[in-house]
Specification:
Oligomer: single chain
Number of strands: 26
Distance between the termini: 33 Å
Number of helices: 6
Radius of gyration: 22 Å
Strand content: 35-45%
Structural class: mainly beta
Shape: globular
Largest sheet: 5 strands, antiparallel
Length: 407
């Protein structure tokens, strides 16, 4: 593996810079070591990031080779992947091939896209809940759509009414376009955006409902209204989570981190002229408490983050230079990646947020990369380093590659 020295780490809060080293070979593991020197006044750990790199050139070459070597997906395969999932609310016993261990017992519940018939992007199917229950060497399955406003309006109107991640609301003619633009503007000004509440991305364990026969699951997506409580026993949607805690935010992430005490750590995004509101959420009351605020570096073009790193002591926000275009969101104007624009010259900012309020947020700059998910975040045994493991890309072309038409 060839190693090269990358530009020095830069801190905007006066900490001593350190070097960043990374592999020049694509598709091989690389480690980005962002080390800030400790001072007597601030016992700040350094940050180390391990990533798997994927260059656009390598991905293009590999995709071309695959295309030449095999046939394109059949229409039947596309329909199976991106068609319409059938509901099966009552559990049905499944045929088991082989043998399941007798001690294997419990239920697995997941959510994901179920109805893609009017969608443009892989991330946009209307949420469906799927369950597999194992007991005594047998297996049962069930499937049920999440009862969101977006799905109800879709089934009533026969069209996409609320904008999804990569699919705009379906309207008819210039007058319909104008009405949709006015609705989006009104939502933004009143801090009640008319984005989707399609909670199809993740499920989080919460203690709400424990006194009534068992804890519930919280289905989530990237808008605050896309938070629904789910009964795992029958996959019913019990209630939409609403907030009166005063925490600002028009968007959020669907990947909160669960801390040792069971609380959820996450952030909301206020826009425009806003930033990241890092908060801790009580797993029983679901009330959120802001811990820190990180302002946007481009107030009119906030960065889109899908995930972040966390330990019980720190949140790590990795602000790559992929910026939401309000003109694209509201008016449908073209952007380089769905409704976002890539500005690699800005590099990537890393924000280290202490969760106990013991110090200020520290921000660093490192070479540009794009990422979806953080797989692990942990501190070294002596507390001097903080490690963030993630899968990194040279650019966000994968967002365009996941449009259903190319697939």
């Amino acid at each position: 593996m060839a190693w090269q020295r990358a530009p020095a780490l830069k801190s905007n809060r006066g900490l001593q810079p350190a070097s960043i080293s990374c592999s020049s070979n694509s598709w091989l593991p690389r480690s980005l070591k962002l080390s800030s020197q400790r001072s007597a006044a601030t016992q700040l750990p350094s940050v180390a990031m391990a990533a798997v790199s994927g260059t656009a050139a390598a991905a293009t070459a590999e995709a071309s080779a695959d295309k030449a070597a095999c046939n394109a997906p059949t229409e039947a395969a596309r329909k199976a992947l991106f068609g319409v999932a059938e509901e099966q609310p009552a559990e049905v016993e499944a045929a088991v091939r082989g043998r399941l261990p007798g001690w294997l017992s419990g239920s697995l519940v997941v959510n994901g896209g179920g109805d893609y018939s009017h969608m443009s992007h892989m991330f946009d199917g209307y949420g469906v809940l799927a369950k597999v229950r194992l007991q005594g060497g047998k297996a049962w399955g069930a499937q049920r759509y999440l009862d969101s406003k977006a799905y109800r309006e879709y089934t009533r109107e026969g069209r996409v009414v609320l904008r999804e991640f990569g699919t705009r609301a379906e309207v008819s003619g210039p007058l319909g376009e104008l009405k949709e633009v006015l609705r989006q503007l009104a939502g933004l000004m009143t801090k009640n955006p008319s984005f989707t509440d399609n909670a199809s991305v993740s499920l989080q364990p919460v203690r709400r409902g424990a006194a009534a026969g068992g804890p519930l699951l919280m289905a989530m997506s990237e808008t605050p209204p896309a938070s629904y409580l789910i009964n795992p026993s029958d996959l019913s949607t019990t209630e939409q989570v609403t907030y009166d805690d005063g925490l600002p935010g028009d968007l959020t992430t669907a990947h909160p981190s669960i801390l040792a005490d069971g609380s959820l750590l996450n952030f909301t995004r206020s826009l425009p002229f806003g930033g990241f509101h890092v908060y801790k959420q009580d797993p029983t009351t679901l009330r959120r408490t802001q811990l820190a605020f990180v302002p946007d570096r481009r107030p009119l073009s906030p960065a889109w983050l899908h995930d972040f790193g966390a330990t019980d002591k720190y949140a790590v926000l990795l602000e790559h230079p992929l910026y939401m275009s309000l003109a694209s969101l509201l008016l449908g104007r073209p952007a380089s990646h769905l409704f976002m624009n890539w500005q690699p010259q800005d590099e990537t900012r890393v924000h280290l947020v202490p969760l106990d309020g013991s110090g200020a947020v520290r921000s660093f700059t490192c070479p540009t990369f794009f990422y979806f998910h953080v797989s692990n975040t942990f501190e070294s045994a002596d507390g001097s380093s903080l490690h963030v493991d993630l899968a990194a890309y040279d650019d966000p072309q994968i967002l365009n590659d996941l449009l259903l038409q190319p697939l």
